[in-house]
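Human: I would love a firmer grasp of how sequence relates to backbone shape in proteins. Take your time, and here it is.
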Amino acid sequence: MVTFDAVSFQVPSAWPAWNLALHPAICPLLDTHAVYLGRPGPDPACPSAAFGKWGAVQVQPIDPQSPDVAEAQIPTVLDGRPAMTNADAAVTHTIVDLLPAAGVEVSLSYGTAAMTTPDDRRPARPGGLNPAVGRRRTCQRVPAAAA
């Protein structure tokens, strides 16, 4: 279980979870399985080339100036609470969910495999990555055995 601000979600236990406030030089790479919590630092150590998207999650405070906010205009419900999501996930291979009650943006990047739900043909969230909005204000990873 990973928690950032008021959002908790399950990810595979093998995925590292990086708190970018504590590790500002970490580059949020989309081509590796990982969880990135917070905004990247001012000068992250990113490689000159990264290839594709493979299953990464980034959770950060909503930035009203972000292009992701402009793109996430489709109403949805996550854990029983209103949210907004993007329409172009099937093209970009990134699902962007805005959780206004928590003030959090969750970006779920995935590979090229089709990820649609049978009922509405919109992209589905990868298994276990449906955010649950709670009241916690922490940034932590709970070992799977303790969850």
